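Long-time lurker, first post. I've been practising inverse folding by hand and with some scripts of my own, and I keep getting stuck on stretches where the structure tokens seem ambiguous. Below is the full token string for one chain I'm working on. Before anyone asks, I'm not after the true native sequence, just a reasonable design that respects the backbone. If someone could post their per-position residues I'd love to compare against what I wrote down in my notebook.
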């Protein structure tokens, strides 16, 4: 008897999601005689039983489309806003799964999706995930789809900013997405020849950054480009975060833990302005006219690159084969030219940050790029 598979996309969208949906569904339909039921807007669709029959004809023309035909959200089944309350809707998710007699559920998403998938697995659902995000920060996979496209967009932005920075003899700070991991800022900064690259993994010293700009000026370079990750922070800010995290880990009571969590939230809420503050502080320190460009969601929109289409298709078709074999409780990860089925518990809750000895970091240092430390 043919299998019926549920599928959803969750978390921030990225280019390549539709290619992944097509990869799973078309391989499942063509090679394994499967039926697919899509859930709209991430886990909310599963909880509220909002479905979309994914017929074979719907897989035509979506390979090149940005976004996700299923819609997405950051909703979590165990903490879902419902009519003014925040409720644990895990049972409703399980009920929908059973109601449609599904054989498995495919969740395409990043770090948050992995945590939700583990919870659903514990509630008894056979779940398989595929790693997507422009941040490239999912543990257990060489790379995530969405990253290559965003890298191209951010690199092109840096290229374009070069000519205007040069014409006006300005410093331009470009904010690139990535809260916990600096893959995008580092990759685009290196590919675009940024003079300074700041990432969360390497807290910076403002004086060193200012010195690097002044040093360029002394050498007759009258403009500079700084590629700065959203989550980059100064050494003092990193120390503050470490201190709050230690308080959280050591808190003896629920109240103490909650207080630390609220402090962290407050820190990150305030930190959204940090690239503007950094731009102003550098202008004050160096006297060099400075501007800020925030790339924001531009990096997540539009057509996926060929590399992302290939990766999403490779993972999607491998996912269909695993579903056919009845394998679940795993993430379909990229490993070299092949794929690996990684147990969800091994990767959920872990962030893949840039190792300090990564070849991109070494290359940047050897070029004399300022990394702020
Ligand atoms: O999906 C990852 C990401 O793009 C991060 O780089 C960024 O910090 C975040 O999502 C933005 O989220 P939202 O789209 O919810 O504003």
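-- Answer (accepted) --
I ran through it position by position. Result:
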């Amino acid at each position: 008897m043919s299998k019926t598979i549920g599928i959803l996309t969750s978390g921030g969208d990225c280019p390549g999601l539709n290619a992944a949906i097509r990869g799973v569904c078309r391989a499942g339909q063509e090679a394994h005689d499967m039926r697919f039921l899509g859930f709209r807007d991430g886990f909310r669709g599963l909880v509220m039983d909002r479905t979309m029959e994914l017929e074979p004809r719907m897989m035509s023309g979506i390979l090149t489309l940005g976004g996700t035909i299923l819609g997405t959200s950051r909703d979590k089944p165990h903490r879902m806003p419902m009519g003014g309350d925040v409720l644990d809707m895990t049972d409703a998710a399980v009920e929908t799964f059973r109601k449609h007699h599904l054989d498995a559920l495919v969740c395409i998403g990043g770090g948050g999706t992995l945590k939700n998938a583990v919870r659903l697995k514990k509630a008894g659902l056979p779940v398989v995930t595929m790693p997507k995000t422009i941040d490239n920060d999912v543990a257990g996979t060489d790379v995530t789809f969405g990253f290559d496209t965003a890298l191209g967009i951010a690199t092109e932005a840096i290229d374009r900013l070069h000519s205007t920075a040069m014409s006006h003899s300005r410093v331009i700070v470009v904010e690139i997405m990535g809260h916990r991991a600096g893959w995008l800022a580092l990759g685009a900064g290196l590919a675009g020849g940024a003079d300074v690259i700041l990432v969360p993994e390497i807290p910076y010293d403002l004086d060193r950054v200012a010195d690097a700009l002044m040093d360029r000026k002394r050498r007759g370079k009258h403009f500079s480009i700084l590629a700065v990750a959203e989550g980059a922070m100064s050494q003092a800010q990193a120390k503050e975060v470490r201190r709050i995290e230690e308080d959280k880990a050591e808190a003896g009571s629920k109240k103490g833990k909650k207080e630390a969590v609220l402090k962290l939230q407050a820190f990150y809420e305030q930190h959204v302005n940090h690239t503007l503050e950094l731009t102003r502080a550098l202008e004050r320190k160096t006297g060099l006219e400075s501007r800020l460009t925030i790339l924001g969601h531009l990096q997540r929109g539009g057509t996926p690159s060929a590399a992302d289409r290939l990766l999403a298709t490779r993972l999607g078709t491998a996912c269909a084969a695993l579903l056919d074999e009845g394998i679940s409780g795993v993430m379909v990860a990229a490993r070299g030219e092949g794929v690996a089925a990684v147990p969800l518990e091994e990767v959920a809750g872990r962030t893949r940050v840039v190792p300090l000895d990564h070849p991109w970091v070494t290359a940047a240092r050897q070029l004399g790029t300022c990394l702020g430390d």
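A couple of notes from the structure itself: The mean pLDDT is 97. The chain is about 45% helix and 15% strand. Happy to go over any region you disagree with.
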